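Entry:
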Amino acid sequence: MARKPRLAAGRARTLGLPTRGTTNPNRLRRVDRWMVGTPLVVDALTAADDPLVVDLGYGATPVTTVEMAARLRAVRADVRVLGLELDADRVAAGEAAADPPRLEFRRGGFELAGARPVLLRAFNVLRQYTEEQANEAWTTMLGRLAPGGLLVEGTCDEIGRRCSWVALTADGPLTFTLACLPADLETPGDLAERLPKSLIHRNVDGERVHRLLADLDACWATAAPFAPFGPRARWVEAVRLLAARGWPVLDTRKRWRLGEITVPWDAVSPLS
């Protein structure tokens, strides 16, 4: 039985359970690339009075937090990034890479250690929870954002070739993104194993996310004549065909070439 999130003992009163801590350099490059190239995120960050970004649950080493901070500076040079972890040893590892005030590390969980960020990245932190608990964590994190803030919550494989995430505001989920290295896939349906907790148990007949993956697989099959031009070309054609079927694809060919597809949350949201 999954353990319920709790307030841990101690001065920090941190909320949540420790993750496995698995991390690798560039593991989160796809979501970082999406954030710096998506108006939804860029506009929120550039308009913020205080450009504070929190990276929740960065893992055994701070490498992905350091990478995110460097990438976000292309959007706003004065961005401040705070990495949060429940495990004290991981916080200590982060402090060795700190560059205050631009990059700091602290002990914290879903309560965000009292911070009020305009952007919160929470990757691979909800997989050990139930769907109900994950939804409660969403509510907790969204309640800690600065006005107009965004939460980007998702999951990926160990080397960042298969990813998915949800972008949310205080009003709820806005968009859902699949991102991959097309050469790593047999079919787009392979991404099902990396759906976020809010959707991974909904990949069953009758649910919207199941229909999305099934239709994307069908379009991938139809796009087989593009295979000689490489997996990326086949992915682009598959997404084009998906949009032609009436799916509300939000991004453009430029993003498709990166192995991405983004749709409104309503297109994949659970039916109940």
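DSSP finds nine helices and eight strands in the chain.
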